[in-house]
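Note on ligand handling. Small-molecule inputs were canonicalized before submission; formal charges were left as drawn, and no protonation-state enumeration was performed. Where a ligand contained multiple stereocentres, the stereochemistry in the source SMILES was retained. For zinc ion, this procedure yielded the string shown in the input block below.
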Amino acid sequence: MDARYNPFTGEPVVPGHDEAIPAAAALGLEPPRYCEQCGRRMVVQVSPDGWWARCSRHGLLESAKLERR
Ligand SMILES: [Zn+2]
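Structure output:
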């Protein structure tokens, strides 16, 4: 299964259908709220350096790792 979920709405992503991504999110300022892989709501923590979000099944996602090291 390679189903994906919108990280901001938790809705299943339909192939060929545009995803609605908030402008702040597109800039990396807004943390995702849902796991892209399973659609579960994640635990989100925002810090001065960025944010991290944790899915109980898929682990930690960090903004710092998505940008630069
Ligand atoms: Zn997950």
